[in-house]
Design brief:
heterodimer; A: alpha+beta; Alpha-Beta Plaits; 4 domains; 5-stranded mixed sheet; 4-stranded antiparallel sheet; disordered N terminus; B: alpha/beta; Rossmann fold; 6-stranded parallel sheet; 11 helices
């Protein structure tokens, strides 16, 4: 007997095996053989204490371990199931519709086989990733040619007929993104779930692997059964041959050949014993072979590199979700704070002016209604005051409205920036290169950024000249304000810029201020084209 | 002309402060102090012991309910001073606070309370009238405030016992109106109003006594519930 036995000692003792069989079901640890294991505690303890079991004893007890019985059981149980699965796999090969339709069923059968392996052999084989429908989207667009070309460039399957494009293998969100980036107008976009599912199912590599497994499974299963049952039965037959050779009247060739005399029949007993002792090892070998296929064909066989890539992209997605959650929370806080600010401004400004106006007009009205001759100079004074309140209220409302949405932006960012530059106290050179309009929210933030940066130049830098640059390259709007002042501005935005920096962050933008002592100061705001 | 009142104004918006002062002086009242925050208000009241303090709810530093808290403190320390709380919005809770304050241990000796929306000042006569009522120990609640409180109190059992008409009458009482004014408003006779009021008193379990006092109790017991 070689030193390295194919059976780890723990399998024989039952302990390690039992541990591996133990599985979680609904939060409860289920061990179907626990009651049987109880009177094995002695051997369990011995093994755990590190008592080595001699190879001879291991070889002798191998046929009587649970593992051996489980493998025989697996061979017996899986044989008829293998035949059924084989028939199903074969019949559904008929045509494409059957291929697709049988994919989920094949996955179920595969999963049943895995669960059989788990229950009987204690090996938990990870489930393959679920069937993913193929993405299949129908798009109607006047720019069909361009969209088709773009989708093709991204390795999508594209079919085009007139202004209709059918795109396979590309998510609807990605198509929308492409269209938005390239300013392609989309009239209608519908994911075709039926075709998508059909294509996904027909190309479901996992289902094909499962089918492959079950098409060859009968070979393995028969072999398994023959080895398991054959060796056991033949072993028993020869072991007990002397006892019944007389009655059987049969030879040692398992019921054929010439009968042998009793004395000679004892020669077969060692053969029977050898067969019996060998059978668990052979059964095991076949079983391991089957397990190899089960792991490869029924389990999650994604190669480690792909798996690592998947994990990585999942982690990246998770991080992105986190940052988006933070940004969203910030947007909510930010808009709540801004609404509060607007309410304050209204309350303290226009509303107060209007209340005062109403008071004065009320008083003037009473004076005019008074039967006594009114004091006109007093009334005139009141009306004059009320008038002033009204003018103030209008001015306050205008300022407020401008803070909410500068109407100068209605004609686009270039005009708005030109107005800003013209109004600046410090002479501003304007460089604008904006071919396409960014989204309204981005324009507004860009405008406020430029306004705030220019205001800071005028207030703090001591500059004699400044440059306002606004460049829109696809996907990115960059606002840059450069001045020839004395520099030394805080690298971290504060004051008015802090609120702005927060708004910039809410749209995934960034603000960067470089201001070495002695100047010059360069402040750069970068925003995505679309918020 | 009514008697001259000594008034303290606490209002952070200078423009409204000036407007109030103008109206009140025009009507012959004396503005003993006009301040912009709650702390100055309490100091001014302590110093001048005015007949009425007109208090804006929202004042610096937090612009929440500083004025109201100051008003409650004034009630406690200077029960003789009537308080007219003044706000741009109806806050039922503020009104409820005022009312419960009114029912405090000093209520016997206290001046009146009022809660008006700032808009009401546009009707100068009503505003001046409200000030006078508060100075005399009565109530002056804005109709909107009353509506809000009645709505808030709608589910209480006491209210459930009142008929719709009685509820109308009670709402007008809560605004601080006289029987005649209520009769005019609802286009019913004075006698009918009296009948409704006595029904209200009995339903709310208020024993017969000085009728003006009962009126106040009816309104307050009710709004405070």
């Amino acid at each position: 007997m070689p030193e390295v036995a194919p059976f780890p000692a723990t399998w024989l003792s039952g302990d390690g095996y039992r541990a591996s069989r133990t599985r979680k079901a609904g939060g409860l640890t289920v061990d179907p053989w626990r009651h049987r294991a109880q009177h094995r505690n002695m051997s369990d303890n011995q093994t755990m204490a590190g008592v080595t079991i001699s190879p001879v004893r291991r070889a002798l007890t191998a046929p009587f371990t649970r593992r051996a019985w489980a493998e025989v059981g697996y061979a017996i149980v899986s044989f008829p199931l293998a035949l059924l699965a084989f028939v199903f796999s074969l019949v559904t090969l008929h045509n494409g519709i059957f291929w697709a339709g049988s994919a989920p069923a094949l996955r179920k059968i595969g999963s049943a086989n895995r669960s059989l392996v788990r229950r009987m052999l204690g090996e938990d084989i990870p489930a393959p990733p679920p069937l993913r429908p193929h993405s299949y989207v129908r798009v109607r667009t006047p720019d069909a040619d361009r969209l088709a070309a773009l989708a093709k460039a991204e390795d999508a399957k594209v079919k085009q007929r007139g202004n209709r494009v059918r795109i396979g293998g590309m998510l609807a969100t990605r198509i929308a993104e492409l269209a938005a980036d390239e300013h392609i107008v989309i009239h209608a976009m519908n994911p075709d779930r039926v075709v998508g599912w059909y294509r996904g199912a027909i190309r479901d590599a996992q289902a094909w692997k499962i089918r492959g497994y079950f098409l060859m499974k009968p070979v393995i299963a028969s072999f398994h059964l023959v080895v398991a049952a054959g060796f056991w039965l033949a072993g028993l037959f020869y072991l007990t041959y002397p006892a019944w050779q007389e009655f059987a009247g049969a030879g040692p060739g398992l019921g054929s050949g010439h009968p042998v005399p009793l004395a000679a029949s004892f020669l077969f007993v060692p053969l029977g014993a050898a067969l019996l002792l060998a059978s668990p090892w052979l059964t095991r070998a076949v079983c391991e072979l089957d397990l190899l296929f089960v792991r490869g064909f029924l389990g999650d066989s994604s190669d480690p590199v792909a798996l690592a890539a998947r994990v990585k992209s999942l982690e990246a997605a998770r991080a992105r979700v986190k940052s988006l959650e933070a940004a969203r929370a910030h947007v909510v806080d930010d808009s709540a704070a801004r609404l509060r600010g607007i309410e304050r401004d209204l309350h303290d400004g226009a509303q107060a002016q209007l209340v005062a106006l109403a008071m004065k007009l009320g008083l003037a009205k009473e004076k005019l209604e008074d039967p006594a001759p009114p004091d006109f100079s007093r009334v005139a004074q009141l009306v004059d005051d009320a008038h002033r309140n009204a003018i103030e209220a209008i001015a306050e409302l205008r300022t407020l409205a401008k803070g909410i949405h500068p109407s100068v932006l209605n004609n686009g960012l270039p005009d708005a920036l030109a107005t800003l530059a013209a109004r600046s106290a410090v002479p501003v050179e304007l460089v604008v290169d904006i071919q396409e309009r960014p989204s309204a929210a981005i324009e507004t933030i860009a405008y406020f950024s430029a306004a705030e940066l220019l205001a800071n130049v005028a207030k703090h830098s001591g500059a004699r000249h400044a440059t306002l640059e606004a460049v829109h390259v696809p996907g990115l709007l960059r606002i840059r304000v450069t001045d020839d002042g004395h520099g030394g501005a805080a690298a971290v935005p504060d004051g008015g810029l802090r609120g702005l920096a927060e708004r910039i962050r809410t749209v995934d933008g960034s603000i960067d201020i470089e201001s070495p002592s002695g100047g010059p100061t360069v402040a750069t705001v970068e925003l995505p084209s679309h918020a | 002309m009514v008697e001259m009142l000594r008034i303290v104004i606490a209002e952070d918006a200078a423009v409204i402060r000036a407007g109030l002062a103008e109206i009140l002086t025009d009507r012959g009242h004396e503005i003993v102090a006009a301040v912009g925050d709650a702390e100055a208000l309490q100091a001014a009241v302590a110093e001048h012991k005015p007949d009425v303090a007109i208090v804006d709810v929202r004042m610096p530093p937090d612009h929440t309910d500083e004025g109201l808290r100051a008003a409650i403190a004034i009630r406690r320390d200077h029960p003789g001073t009537g308080i007219l709380v003044f706000s741009q919005y109806v806050e039922t809770r503020y009104a409820a606070d005022l009312v419960s304050m009114r029912r405090g241990p000093h209520s016997a000796a206290s001046g009146g309370v009022g809660y008006l929306l700032k808009d009401r000042v546009a009707n100068v006569a009503e505003f001046i009238d409200a000030i006078a009522r508060v100075a005399a120990g009565g109530t002056a609640l804005d109709p909107e405030v009353v509506t809000g409180m009645l709505n808030a109190a709608r589910h209480t059992s006491a209210l459930a016992m009142l008929t719709a008409r009685e509820r109308d009458v009670l709402a007008l009482m809560a605004e601080g109106r006289s029987n005649t004014a209520i009769a005019d408003q609802l286009v019913i006779s004075d006698r009918a109003v009296e009948k409704h009021i006595s029904n209200i008193f009995s339903k709310l379990g208020l024993p017969p006594s000085d009728s003006d006092h009962r009126r106040v109790l009816a309104v307050l017991a009710f709004l405070g519930s």
